[in-house]
Amino acid sequence: MSNFTPDLNPSQPDETQQPSTEAFQSNRPEEFRPAAHEVNSSAGEEDSRQTTETSTNLPAAAQAESQTELVEKVVAPFSEVLSTLAQVWRENRRLLVALGLVLALLPLVAVVASLLVVIHSIPFLAFFLKVIGLGYSLWFISQYFFLETKRQKLLGLWQKLFEAAKSQSEMK
């Protein structure tokens, strides 16, 4: 706070002495001082009309330019960050994709593990699933491993599968 003692206007009677506007104006910084027409005017409505008229009478181009400058000042730090991130992405794309896949698989593994815990907690469900798996394994072995002709057929299917995978990887 400042030690402010306003000059009293001697033209007014002693009981209702009011500080003069010059005393207030001298201690204010220039940016907070009202315009000359606001200080000397006696009608408050005229002051508000005049100030709104002067602020809206700015050319549209000047207002647009000042808004553009303000937007550029606000957006500049973000554009630098985005350009840096884009450069890092271009340089390390494969690594970042692999890291993203690993991070995406972590919740998936947790969900599968919790699902297996739930299945195991149901009394006879785990036993029946084991029996079904054992039965399918026995059927697969009996169908494809006992006879030589069926083994050759299975080997041919595997070779076709590997060739298709190899041709797709060469296309990329």
Number of helices: 7
Question: Low-confidence parts, pLDDT < 50 over ≥5 residues?
Answer: 40-48
Structural class call reads: mainly alpha
Could you tell me the strand content as a percent range?
Answer: under 5%
What oligomeric state do the depicted chains represent?
A: single chain
Order of helices and strands: HHHHHHH
What global shape is seen?
A: elongated
**Main pleated-sheet profile:** none
The end-to-end distance, rounded to whole angstroms, is 75 Å
User: Quick check: average pLDDT?
Assistant: 75
Helix content percent band: over 70%
Radius of gyration: 42 Å
According to DSSP, the number of beta strands is 0
Task: Walk me through what this model shows.
The chain is an all-alpha fold and 172 residues long. The protein has seven helices and no strands. It has helices at residues 21-27, 36-40, 44-56, 60-91, 93-121, 125-144, 148-171.
Give a summary of the structure in a few sentences.
The protein is mostly helical and 172 residues long. Residues 40-48 have low confidence and may be disordered.
Throw out a few tags for this protein.
elongated; mainly alpha; 172 residues
Note the topology.
Layout: H1 21-27, H2 36-40, H3 44-56, H4 60-91, H5 93-121, H6 125-144, H7 148-171
